[in-house]
Task: structure prediction
Amino acid sequence: MTGTLILDPLVPLVFLAIVGAIALMGIIIAVARGLNGWALRGLAALVVLGALAGPSYQQEDRAPLSDIVLMVEDQSASQRLGDRTDQSADAATALAAQITARPNTELRRVTVPDGPGDAGTELMRALTDALAEEPRGRVAGIIALSDGRVHDADLPIDLPAPLHLLMSGLESDWDRRLTVRNAPAFAIIGEPVTLTLRIDDLGAAPTSEQLVELDISVDGDTPQTFRVPIGEDLELPITLPHGGRNVIRFSLPEAEGELTDRNNTALIQMNGVRDRLSVLLVSGEPHPGGRTWRNLLKSDSSVDLVHFTILRPPEKQDGVPVDELSLIAFPTRELFMEKIQDFDLIIFDRYKRRGILPALYLDNVASYVREGGAVLVAAGPDFASADSIFRSPLGQVLPATPTARVMEEPFLPRVTDLGQRHPVTTDLPTAGDWGRWLRQIDVGDPQGNVVMHGIDDRPLLVLNRVGEGRVALIASDHAWLWSRGYEGGGPQLELLRRLAHWMMKEPELEEEALTATAEGQTMRISRRTLGETVPPVTITAPDGSTVELPFEQKGPGQFETVFEGPEIGLYRLSNGDQEAVIGLGPAAPREFVETIASADALTPHVDALRGGVIRLEDGLPRLRDVRAGRPAAGRGWIGLTPRNAYETLDVRQTAILPPWLVLVLSALFITAAWLREGRR
Result:
């Protein structure tokens, strides 16, 4: 039980001060006039002022409360390196016994696991949540068992008691780390892009080794090995082999004695893009669709177009002098013999043999296709004639044979069942509600994939692979009607764009493709095929374990499944003859970027209330009581601040000047003063 004198004024303090001032002035006047009762009048005034001040005596019944000590135990991935787990567990057990043995003390244990995703060790967030559940006035100390690698140390926190770090790990620990300092998200196919890598030895590393082996692999292929120096920025030129996502993996062999090899690998994903699409458009006899082809290609700023057109056939005889027909000779030999490999796509629009392009040139175009080039033929009546380019060396690679029949009647182009699954024609805009074409060239013996048909289900668009290259045949010269809006038009621009990208072997338009996208630890795997079904996908995790997942059909030729990756790293996917690789998160999680134990991150919080940092390898510290504001740590000891907190059970107040006493005393003093002055 405790007692306290308190004041509870009946009037505002300003009014109380005014009354006191008036009383003081009256006493001064009484003294000046020589009145003998001035002292008694002053006592009466004091009694009245005291009554107005409302003094009382407060008694409290208190129950003492125990002090609380928070023990924050870091159980993140970096704490599992070396013998840190055993160090921390043994220290936590011994400390818990010491704290619970202290009188009037309670222990709260807080566990800190790995943060969500790749957030790392969020020790300060866990400490903030724990403090929010405890009365601040009872917290006597905070003890953190950790390697000090905390990733939210910049989180502002107001600590009610000293923070002590008992740091796991050994001074002799060392580790080797590989980091990628500069890696663009996109790169132009075929052009080198420079990456910046660095290899560092951290901690008490041996100094004998100056060069290490670095393995580099692209999309999981056989790695190439190089000897590179340690502790220097490495400028590494990389050339992406294909468009779309390229997964590049850099890895170091595990060195003897290092803490972990989890940070010996760096994984980056770069998208390969084409700088510009180089197209050669070869036009034969002028027709309304010729300008449409040119306009479509010229409207794309990423296309470099070379247009070779025959405006005046050689058989035309009108008496114009030869030296007035052209200012310069068209460089046909340079285009079709010397620089043909520079073109990404060659388009023949209603071209027929006129003797302008020798058979040798067209044979070179056929070789260009077999070696990886792309040719698109937009056929008109010329394709069915005796002068058709099919009856040239180029015919060896064309995907269909003309029957010499030209059908002049309206028809509606339609996507075939196979075309519903082919990426070039699947889900074309307006879903087949297109305008009609007015002419189709009859072709037979199609090779490859017929993705569109026309009159009587005859082949209209045929796609085929020849050697390393690709060819496409449109058996009509009326596709331009769509761009003119005839009967509502159609998706000519989208169809040609897809055709061009398919012929350029863009991964997004491959008929048989296995792809995956990642968001956090969730992997969405997609399979595109021309078949009706696909087998389950086999997923190989970074640790070598495998799992099979069935696909779910999402549309014609499109299958999908979702996989939750159990860990961060490189995953390999296999489905039939299709393979893919994808990385979930960084190859080295945040927990393994900095692996050497260090107190630097927590030092500002430790120093705020004069706490301490002690290595567990030096032994377990003793516990002492220290006063608030005093140094809370020293050699071999850490301090706890007793809070002497209590709970108030009952409160009683007794007035020192009750009203009846004020009345009696004031009347007594005033009467005595009057009698004394009257006697005089």
Q: What stands out?
A: The radius of gyration is 45 Å. The chain has a mean pLDDT of 85.
